[in-house]
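Chapter review. Work through the record for Sigma intracellular receptor 2 before attempting the end-of-chapter questions.
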Amino acid sequence: QLTDLLQQYATAFRDPMMLQPPEWFKAFIYCEAFLQLPFFPVAAYAFLKGGCRWIRTPAIIYSTHVATTLFAILAHILFHDFSRSEHAGPETLRERLVLLSIYLPYLLIPLLLLFTMLCNPHYKHVEKRKRK
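Structure tokens for Sigma intracellular receptor 2:
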């Protein structure tokens, strides 16, 4: 079952945020459900169709939001005292780095998207529609 899989993940990678998420982490989960997930089909359409320069602004908003949330999550993983957590958290630097490596792609991919939207000449200038 999914709950067993979640328990196995949390135990194997010492990720107590998945079993007992702090309030700020719950807020990020709601943002993901209601802001980030609806973005995926829109972005998939734009990138698969190609030539859709209108995706630039939504992609910048999306990638900036995700990167901001991930900075908070990564800082929590690196610096939080998990000794008082109900569920086992990372104790050693190695355990923290392993957990960090699981979350890191969720930061790197939005940063690559942001870099693409800001630096790729195709997305730099959006053509304005001509009035008839």
